[in-house]
Design a protein that fits this description.
heterodimer, A: 348 residues, alpha/beta, Rossmann fold, Hypothetical Protein Yjia, Chain: A,domain 2, seven-stranded parallel sheet, six-stranded antiparallel sheet, 11 helices, 32% helix, globular, disordered N terminus, B: 94 residues, alpha+beta, five-stranded antiparallel sheet, 6 strands
């Protein structure tokens, strides 16, 4: 296998002072660990105003791109597959498209690639480093991995994908640190056990030191080599984790949403890994409610500025185990009927 | 509620709890009988009454319990079929 220009056997040793290279920051991290939030905050910084974003989503409904406020031109969405399994060719094409646009005059000086929460970084890194299409001009700069301070330890112990993400990090970003008392405790020890070369930093509500992206922080050496990348398996199953995408046309009462989330948590327990999406609320139909949940912990319901798609409807993605879409729909329909019935009785 | 949706709720719940393979499920209209490992028998009946819908649960040789919502009914059913299963509690965090 031929080495790309600048290859020195160590990804992070690729030299950044070669101006012809466009640095690519790979942001990965387990489901719901805060990747999109961090990217959203990063893109608000002047220093990153010329940044192209590639988002890879796992699930039929691609939603993350709606949460990132940037122009459509600056963003490429790769959905319905996981980059590390089936879409590496798509990534190369996406980068090639970006490069072509750049040649045509669209100016960007950096690429951020957000993977799915279930991605194994190894084949993606391999693709980025060794791919002949992109490597002449695009260079993997660093791998940022978000780790949820609340659920990270459990995710690492239960999901190989999560521990592999940690293993490939240049920088580990602890998120949701405000929700735990002792971040420096067992989680940090476990992270260091898996990858003691990565710098561990905290994000403050999605805000991180720009140096972690642009360079200039106290660098620690990454240790994997070309051979180590190659030996990782290129195909794997995402075990029994799956995503289901719920579309629901009718608006629901606000209380239905709360009861629905409670019932999902009650029945699915820790098998519900992630829930996110937009909800069409009857009492506030002008804008959708935004729902974000990681296992049983949910962000407070927020309101999106406007409907991100033409049709007003609920669109939810649930990721976890043993979740049946007809069941989710049946539960939502039934709770809404119960609430509707009570509302009607109260009115009478 | 339709009989189909009723059956979906019961079967989907058993799948979520991981006991689907251990159960024999007989569903007819708005009632079903669940037999778990040939020794636990639970009958579930959904009814629409003038005051609202109700869910009746009756374990063999036990007193019937009546629930006003699907959530309450499934919580009660969990105590019978998988009492040791850990449940989640929704927490909203800033």
């Amino acid at each position: 296998m031929s080495k790309p220009t600048g290859w020195s056997g160590n990804v992070c040793e690729l030299k950044m002072n070669q101006s012809e290279f466009i640095p690519l920051t790979l942001i990965t991290g387990f489901l719901g660990s805060g990747k999109t939030t961090i990217i959203k905050k990063l893109l608000q910084c002047e220093e990153l105003s010329k940044t192209a974003v590639i988002i890879n989503e796992f699930g039929e409904i691609g939603l993350d791109h709606h949460f990132i406020e940037t122009s459509d031109e600056d963003l490429v969405e790769l959905s319905t597959g996981c980059l590390c399994c089936v879409m590496r060719g798509d990534l190369q094409e996406a980068i090639a498209r970006l490069l072509k646009k750049r040649e045509e005059g669209w100016s960007f000086d950096r690429i951020i690639l957000e993977t799915t929460g279930m991605a194994d970084p190894a084949p993606i890194i391999q693709s980025l480093v060794l791919d002949k299409i992109s490597t002449p001009k695009v260079m993997l700069d660093r791998v940022l991995v978000t780790v949820d301070s609340v659920t990270g330890l459990k995710s690492i112990s239960e999901f190989e994908e999560c521990s592999r993400q940690v293993a490939f990090a240049d920088i580990l970003l602890l998120t949701k640190t405000d929700l735990v008392d002792n971040v420096e405790g067992p989680l940090e020890k476990e992270l260091m056990r898996i990858n003691n070369n990565a710098g561990i930093f905290k994000s403050d509500f999605g805000i991180i030191d720009l140096k972690l992206v642009l360079g200039g922080y106290k660098r620690q050496t990454i240790t994997f080599t070309e051979n180590e990348i190659d030996k990782h398996p290129h195909s794997h199953s995402h075990s029994d984790i799956m995503s289901v995408s719920l579309y629901f046309e009718k608006p629901i009462h606000a209380v239905t949403l709360t009861l629905f989330l409670e019932l999902l948590a009650e029945v699915l327990g820790s098998d519900l890994i992630r829930l996110k999406g937009f909800v069409y609320i009857k009492e506030a139909s002008e804008t959708p409610a935004v729902v974000h949940g990681v296992q049983h912990i949910f962000h407070p319901i927020a309101w999106h500025q406007s409907w991100p798609y033409e049709k007003k409807e609920t669109q939810l993605v649930l990721i976890g185990r043993n979740i049946s879409l007809p069941w989710v729909r049946a539960i939502l329909e039934t709770i809404e009927e119960e609430v509707e019935e009570i509302t009607r009785q109260n009115e009478n | 509620m339709t009989p189909g949706r009723f059956a979906t709720i019961i079967s989907g719940t058993l799948k979520a709890w991981g006991v689907e393979d251990q159960c024999v499920l007989k569903t007819e209209n708005f009632s079903c009988l669940i037999t778990l490992n040939s020794n636990v028998f639970v009958e579930i009946v959904y009814e629409e009454q003038p005051f609202g819908s109700i869910w009746r649960l009756r374990e063999k040789d036990q007193k019937e319990s009546v629930h006003p919502s699907v959530g309450a009914a499934l919580k009660s059913l969990a105590l019978i079929l998988c009492p040791n299963r850990q449940v989640g509690r929704v927490m909203f965090a800033n």
